[in-house]
Design brief:
Chain B: Residues 34-304 form the Thiolase N-terminal domain. The complex is a heterodimer of chains A (342) and B (461). With 342 residues, chain A is an alpha+beta fold. Chain A has eight helices and 13 strands. Residues 43-62 and 210-220 of chain A have low confidence and may be disordered. By secondary structure, chain B is of the alpha+beta class. In chain B, 34% of the residues lie in helices and 15% in strands. Classes of the chains: A alpha+beta (342), B alpha+beta (461). The A-B interface holds A 226-235, 239, 283-285, 287, 309, 311-314, 321, 328-329, 331 and B 184, 197-200, 204, 208, 211-212, 275-278, 280, 329-332.
């Protein structure tokens, strides 16, 4: 991940486009679905311009290279004073302590719709629906409390190959309006995979892809990963996806019901990755401090209803925590990550 | 019963004299709190004899038996303290209501207290401390629990709707509140023994601790077998004749299986720790884990002078106590390991070592709880890193451990266990001192949910 000002792949600063208000995720999914359909149609229909660095699915179409929009969205003057009830709902659902301090996962909920707005732009080259959330890397550098007025920025960067397609980082930053030039108080990088798309590989890509989270864990032969002794067990009911969807606004159909998830190839509804990561973050508790880095890598989806065994354990050599979640019955890893005080 | 004399008449100070504490380690200005005796009802497995008995009915029965045993009718006791772990909100004054339903003076104050499975012992510690400070002359400590008659709560969704509706000022607002209720909200919530912060049941937590310490199935079954054999022998020997009052036709703890055997225990399937990855092996069965149980217990404590004035027997002194808690949320320590931390502090404060005890009463939440406790005290690394000791605390002589059985055989109605153990320990040290002519001591250790533990030293008088 790259820190600092948003820039294009070529290093040019992105054009900053201001929106009046933060978009809501609900409407964006409708637009995303339409765009996804258009992109899928573009890939599948011979004769139409094909997306994907010159190699069309059908073989020899004229194709534009995959490029990310050269724009960063920005919304200023985002008020938080009237979010008390919403914050409380989030804190209860995620087992966070009920305070007026916005946890890192809540800031993700606030900021991510702006990143989604980038993903549903007409010139965003990958389909929103069907993208796989691979990882998240979040830094919270201080207290954001109810009443703070915020500035949110989001853009896409770092389009790169993945063994099974193309991965891209969606970056979102939150600053306090009172300190517009300071480094962001919250910064989140969400890494997504679009399967079936291609970029030319370089040896450097191959190397970075080796570290990149993919589904190596769940494809690894049985016995290569041994579950530790759990420190907790989450019993996730069938409504878990609907509950987090209501609080986060992320009503992606794969999370809402078995029926809507089946349409996207899942046997049942799956938990939001960020729900599981935020539960793990809450499990760390006060030891995380006021400023922390919080990472997660997703290995396999958590089917709902379901039980997840978790081990949230302090790093023996440092102040941080590591966590891992797995299916206790099958020993299959769902996610893992770290929480490190900054 | 009330005429039974102290085993050692010479230890009794002249009536009314404020006796100095016999314990040289006691802080200046405190006096002894003595244990006069105890009374409980037989413990019964959930859903059996006490299936429809309430906490208040059971505690009142145990209390009334204590009153009868020691002739306390009309007596104004200094304080009655007790509680229940699974308590209905209507029982906000459970102990006071029980007092009002007993033949104690209605001027007897009371209060409820709760510390999970350590409730009963914590109640006794509280009463003893009031006596030691001279705030009260007499007190009764105890506890009661029913799993069969457990409170049932409504779901969070229905609860919120009911509250919103009750706050609503118009019919429309009330209807709006109820409109939010979903069918799934109508399912009642029964109390769970899951730890709120981890979602793991107590059995699953202990399975993890068991795996960490590598406690074998055979060792656990051995503890369970000994518990049943010891409890059966104690009943047969009449040990509980002056500690138990029959209730609802039950005269003995009905979880007791005098005829159990190593073979029978070995046949049971593991119930906890089945989801743990290799090399952890599930070893905890219904045989070496405590069953859910209903019951109630009480203990009468007093100043030595108060007991002497009423010509009441004195079994022992409650010398000192220590509670502890462990950081179990991130697996640093096992959920039920808190007494392991409390005991070394308790012993150090009182200048005692494990060898100074004639009896060890270690609550058998699970057989493996006892075994992990013993293993930890013998482990040099654990004692150094976790307990701050230069050397292992030491070994517990198994011949002195739970000699009259414990919770695996008797059952474990959460808040009632402390009173059962305290009365048993007091009677054991009194008998031992009478037999040998030397002071006898017992160490009590009770683990509790939430990573809590309470421990106490009981000494003959």
């Amino acid at each position: 991940m790259t820190a600092g000002t948003p820039a294009t792949g070529a290093g040019e600063p992105l054009r900053v486009e201001s929106l009046a208000t933060l978009p809501g995720l609900g409407g964006l999914y409708a637009r995303g679905a339409a765009a996804s359909g258009r992109i899928a149609a573009g890939r599948a229909m011979p004769g139409l311009p094909v997306i994907g660095q010159g190699r069309s699915v059908e073989g020899d179409g004229e194709a534009a290279p995959l490029t990310l929009p050269d724009v960063a969205y920005q919304v200023t003057g985002v008020p938080t004073a009237d979010l008390a009830h919403h914050l409380h709902d989030y804190q209860r659902l995620l087992h966070e302590p009920v305070t007026d301090v916005l946890p890192a996962g809540y800031l993700h909920v606030l900021a991510f719709p702006l990143a989604t707005a980038v993903m549903v732009r007409g010139d965003f080259p990958l389909p929103l629906l069907g993208m796989v959330h691979l990882a998240n890397d979040v830094e919270l550098r201080g207290h954001v409390v109810l009443g703070d007025v915020l500035e949110v920025r989001a853009w896409a960067e770092n389009l790169r190959p993945h063994k099974r397609g193309v991965q891209v980082d969606l970056v979102a930053e939150v600053r306090r309006q009172s300190e517009p030039d300071a480094r962001p108080v919250w910064r989140g990088v969400s890494t997504y995979l679009a399967k079936g798309f291609h970029l030319p590989w370089t040896s450097a890509d191959a190397e970075s892809s080796a570290d990149a989270p993919d589904d190596a864990e769940d494809r690894a032969p049985a016995g290569t990963w041994t579950a530790p002794l759990p420190t907790g067990r989450w019993a996730l009911g069938p409504g878990t996806g609907r509950a987090y969807g209501a609080v986060s606004g992320d009503r992606n159909p794969i999370h809402l019901s078995a029926l809507s998830a089946k349409a996207f190839g899942f046997p049942r509804a799956i938990a939001h990755g960020m729900y599981t990561a935020a539960r793990a973050l809450a499990d760390v508790g006060h030891a995380r401090g006021d400023a922390y880095r919080w990472t997660v890598e997703f290995a396999s989806p958590v089917l709902l209803p379901g039980t997840v065994d978790v081990a949230v354990t302090p790093d023996p050599d440092g102040p941080g925590f590591a966590y891992v979640g797995w299916n206790g019955g099958r020993g299959r890893q769902h996610f893992r990550g770290t929480v490190t005080p900054l | 019963m009330a005429t039974r004399k102290p085993s050692d008449g010479s230890s009794r100070s002249a009536s009314g004299t404020p006796a100095r504490a016999a314990n040289p380690h006691a802080p200046a200005g405190v006096r002894d709190a003595v244990i006069v005796g105890g009374n409980r009802i037989p413990f019964s497995r959930a859903g059996r004899k006490y299936a429809d008995a309430s906490n208040q009915e059971m505690f009142t029965a145990a209390l009334e038996g204590l009153v009868a045993r020691f002739g306390l009718q009309g007596e104004r006791i200094g304080e009655v303290v007790g509680g229940a772990v699974l308590k209905h909100s209507r029982d906000f004054n459970l102990i006071r209501e029980s007092v009002l339903g007993s033949s104690l003076s209605p001027q007897t104050p009371a209060f409820d207290l709760q510390q999970a499975c350590a409730t009963g012992l914590e109640a006794a510690i509280t009463v003893a401390n009031k006596i030691r400070l001279g705030q009260i002359e007499s007190g009764i400590a105890g506890g009661t629990d029913t799993v069969s008659d457990a409170p049932v709560a409504v779901s969070e969704g229905l609860r919120r709707a009911l509250l919103d509706a009750s706050h609503a000022k118009t019919l429309q607002a009330r209807l709006k509140a109820f409109a939010k209720v979903r069918p799934s909200d109508l399912k009642p919530l029964t109390p769970a023994t899951d730890e709120p912060r981890t979602g793991l049941s107590m059995g699953e937590h202990q399975a993890i601790t068991t795996a960490r310490w590598g406690i074998s199935r055979a060792a656990q079954d051995e503890v369970a077998l000994a518990s049943h054999q010891h409890l059966a022998a104690a009943w047969d020997a009449g040990f509980f004749d002056d500690l138990v009052t029959p209730f609802r036709g039950l005269t003995r703890d009905d979880n007791l299986r005098a005829d159990t055997s190593t073979e029978k225990l070995a046949k049971l399937k593991p119930v906890f720790g089945r989801g743990l990855a290799e090399p952890a092996e599930p070893t905890m069965t219904a045989g070496n884990s405590t069953p859910l149980t209903d019951g109630a217990s009480t203990v009468l404590l007093a100043s030595a002078a108060w007991a002497a004035e009423r010509d009441l027997p004195v079994l022992a002194r409650l010398v000192d106590a220590e509670t502890a808690a462990v950081d179990f949320v991130h697996g640093h320590d096992g959920l039920l390991m808190a007494p392991v931390h409390a005991v070394p502090r308790l012993l150090a404060r009182n200048g005692l070592a494990l060898d100074d005890f004639d009896f060890f009463e270690i609550h058998e939440a699970f057989a493996s709880t006892v075994l992990t406790t013993l293993a930890a005290w013998e482990d040099a690394d654990y004692c150094k890193a976790e307990l701050g000791l230069d050397a292992p605390l030491g070994s517990v002589d198994r011949e002195r451990l739970n000699v009259n059985g414990s919770s695996l055989a008797a059952g474990h109605p959460f808040a009632a266990t402390g009173g059962r153990i305290l009365a048993t320990a007091a009677k054991l040290v009194a008998a031992k001192a009478a037999e040998t002519g030397k002071p006898a001591r017992a160490l009590i250790s009770i683990c509790a949910a939430g990573g809590l533990g309470a421990t106490a030293v009981v000494e003959s008088v």
